[in-house]
Amino acid sequence: MAKKNERNTKGRIISSAWKLFYQQGYDDTTVDEIIALSGTSKGSFYHYFSGKDALLGTLSLLFDEKYVALAETMDPEMDCFEKLLYMNRELFTMVENEISLDLLARLYSSQLVTTGHRHLLDHNRYYYKLLKQTIVEGQKKGQISDSMTVNEIVKLYALCERSLLYDWCLCSGEYSLVKYASEMMPVFLTGIRK
């Protein structure tokens, strides 16, 4: 039970921080505001995070929470290729509506210059596990090509998503990420559909 309470406390801090970052901006959000909104203590905050900057790497955890929710509600009868497109559309809808460009850009830049853990590339994330599971299922059902390995397809999918997010940041969100991705992801992934 203690492990679950730890996850809940850390999760509340992360969710509160990103909510405030989106509403007020990263620079205008204080640690004290995060603590107040999360209903935790200063001790709890500093137990998990060395400061506000340490929260930048947690965006991948928010993404994974979204994927957990999607996996629980996704129609099991849906074609696996369509599942991949659905997961992308739902995540990008969340990004476009709940994550500011500034924060996304900070995440990417922090991942480029870090000498430590690169959260976006961590293959222990739920994101990668769900992608692998979906691709394996798709190959078994004959919906996804087996001319590439599961790991190669996962890498291709993640690369396509990151490139779309990066371009959207570079273009300062001047177009709809969701709309553009719904047009481009099927093109990028054409070679994996059987």
Layout: helices, strands, pairs:
Blueprint: H1 2-24, H2 31-38, H3 42-48, H4 59-73, H5 80-98, H6 101-113, H7 126-140, H8 150-170, H9 177-188
Helix pairs in contact: 1-2, 4-5, 5-7, 5-9, 6-8, 7-8, 8-9
CATH homologous superfamily placement of the largest domain: Tetracycline Repressor, domain 2
Q: For the residues shown, what is the average pLDDT? A: 87
Shape: globular
Q: Which structural class best describes the helix and strand composition?
A: mainly alpha
Tag the structure with descriptive keywords.
Tetracycline Repressor, domain 2; 9 helices; mainly alpha; 194 residues; Arc Repressor Mutant, subunit A
Short overview:
The protein is mainly α. The chain contains nine helices and no strands.
Walk me through this protein's architecture.
The chain contains nine helices and no strands. The chain is mostly helical. Helix 1 (2-24) crosses helix 2 (31-38), helix 5 (80-98) runs antiparallel to helix 9 (177-188) and helix 8 (150-170) runs antiparallel to helix 9 (177-188). The chain is globular, with a radius of gyration of 18 Å. It starts with a helix and ends in a 6-residue tail after the last helix.
